[in-house]
Every structure is written in structure tokens, then in C-alpha cells.
Design brief:
It is a single chain. The chain is α/β, with parallel strands linked by helices. It has one domain: Rossmann fold (3-Layer(aba) Sandwich). The chain has eight helices and nine strands. The chain has a five-stranded mixed beta barrel. It starts with 8 loop residues before the first helix and ends with a helix.
């Protein structure tokens, strides 16, 4: 675990230069793989794999279901870099440190970022195994001042006050819906709002009831990464795989648990992988 609160531009530049010297790949698309969704990285061909602990000054993932490596390679002729395992604030890292890999991707040449996560279903209509295209987000930690943009702003990344009303790219959402139709996944595909809870505890019943009026899915990641991606000018598309149902009944004997999340992700991961593969094929080439 790092004691750093943030990274200077030059530090992130050094990380990106190190990686570019070690691989021939020049990625234009970045993918962040959520819990149990690391199989996306395994689909790349002509791979170069870098464990996080082998990359100078790179934070290390400590969560079960997150392998902890950057994977470069090709998917449908498109050069990709995947984070196979993300860094979470609840692991003890500052928000800016957790989101720093997005800035590395920017300097590697990435133009489009696809974020994925395993999430709890707040919406009563959602079922375990549904795929939610994220149309908007609520960044709860930022309500307490825990923003990845906190501190001095470096204009080389972006403006001091980035707008978030258009963070999730509407043209990419439209393409994602088309892909779901072509793959006959419309019966399990949703579109909704994702809310980030800092974790690592799952939500209480009162918290579920509070959030249910405002969002459709809840997780412990993603929102801070999207803020940083928007800040540095990336096009963003997000998917939540609904891996557990949030408990809102005081008489329920059920308990949310991480193994359930991983099990559901493993069962439905192939559908999400196929959706992203189809999406990669349809991305504008310029």
C-alpha cells in the first residue's frame, strides 16, 4: 500500500515511458476489468503482460478476483490495454492514486476507456446476471470531499472544473445497445445509474432504501476513474454486471458476500465479453 496522496505529471509520464519501452503495442482503447471479469484481458492476442508490482511506482491490487496486471494486446485488430484488476480506495490508497492508471492510459495513447464492474442491483426490476449500461453516476465519496481531482490542478491533464453531465459518451451507449440487439442480449441488458459506495462493507438496509430512489446499481469502484478519464479528455463507456441483489428487507436471512459476486460474474462474464468484443468491432476507427 502506498502512502502517496497523488502523482505528479512527470511521475506518470515516467511510468508510461517505461511501459512504451517494454512493448511494441500502442493502445487506443483501455479496459478496466471488474471483479471476476478479468477474462476480457485473456482474450487479447499477441499479449505483453506486466504485473503491477513490476511497474515502477505503480500501486498493487490486493483484492480476491483482481489479478493485478496490465495486459497489452490486440482484439479484433484494435490495440488494447487492460487493467486486469483495479485499485480500490478501501485498500488504503488515496482516490488520486487509485485512478492514476487512467492517466497512464492517456499517456499511452488511449482515446476510449471502457470501465466494467460487478455491482449490486438496487433497481427492483434487475436480476442477478443482468448487464447494465451505465448512463450516469453518483460519486458518493466525492460528497465528502474525496475526489481524485482534489489538490492542485495540472492543466496538462485538463481544466480545474470538468463537467460530468456528459461523462458517459452517448454515441458509445448507442453502439452498445446495437451490439446487445445483434447478440440477442436485450432481455438481460439494462441502462441505468451507478452509485459508488466507498466500501469495503456492503450497504445496510437503510442505505439500500436511501440509494434505491436515486440509482439502479451500487458498487465500490469506477466513479473516481470516470472523473479522471473525463478530466483528461477520454471517451467513456461503462458496464455494470449485476452480481448480487441488494437486501432491503429486515426479515431477510440473506447476506451479501464477495464469493456470490465472483460466482455470478463467472457465470455471466462470457456474455459481457462478447458484448465488448462486438463493441470493439464497431468503434470508430479514426
Amino acid at each position: 500500500m502506498s502512502g502517496k496522496d497523488s502523482y505528479e505529471y512527470e511521475e506518470i509520464e515516467e511510468i508510461s515511458k517505461y511501459l512504451l519501452q517494454k512493448t511494441k503495442h500502442r493502445p487506443t482503447v483501455g479496459i478496466i476489468c471488474g471483479s471476476g471479469l478479468g477474462g476480457l484481458a485473456d482474450l487479447l492476442s499477441d499479449k505483453n503482460v506486466f504485473n503491477y508490482d513490476s511497474i515502477p511506482n505503480f500501486p498493487v491490487s490486493t483484492v480476491v478476483g483482481h489479478s493485478g496486471c496490465l495486459v497489452f494486446g490486440l482484439l479484433k485488430g484494435v490495440t488494447i490495454v487492460c487493467m486486469k484488476g483495479r485499485i480500490h480506495p478501501y485498500e488504503g490508497y488515496a482516490m488520486a492514486v487509485c485512478a492514476m492508471p487512467v492517466r497512464v492510459m492517456k499517456l499511452l495513447g488511449v482515446k476510449t476507456l471502457i470501465v466494467t464492474n460487478a455491482a449490486g442491483g438496487l433497481n427492483k426490476e434487475y436480476k442477478m446476471g443482468d448487464i447494465m449500461i451505465i448512463k450516469d453516476q453518483i460519486n458518493l465519496p466525492a460528497f465528502a470531499g474525496l475526489s481524485p481531482l482534489r489538490g492542485k490542478n495540472d492543466e496538462r491533464w485538463g481544466q480545474r472544473f470538468p463537467p460530468m453531465n456528459n461523462a458517459y459518451d452517448r454515441s458509445l451507449i448507442k453502439i452498445a445497445k446495437q451490439c446487445a440487439e445483434e447478440l440477442k442480449l436485450t432481455d438481460i441488458t439494462r441502462e441505468g445509474v451507478y452509485v459508488m459506495n466507498g466500501g469495503p462493507a456492503y450497504e445496510s438496509i437503510a442505505e439500500v432504501k436511501f440509494l434505491r430512489d436515486r440509482a439502479d446499481a451500487v458498487g465500490m469502484s469506477t466513479a473516481h476513474e470516470v472523473v479522471v478519464a473525463q478530466h483528461c479528455g477520454l471517451k467513456i463507456l461503462g458496464f455494470s454486471l449485476i452480481t448480487n441483489c441488494c437486501i432491503a428487507d429486515y426479515d431477510s436471512r440473506q447476506e451479501a458476500n464477495h464469493q456470490e459476486v465472483l460466482d455470478t460474474a463467472n457465470k455471466r462474464a462470457k456474455d459481457l465479453e462478447n458484448l465488448i468484443i462486438k463493441l470493439i468491432e464497431k468503434l470508430p476507427k479514426k
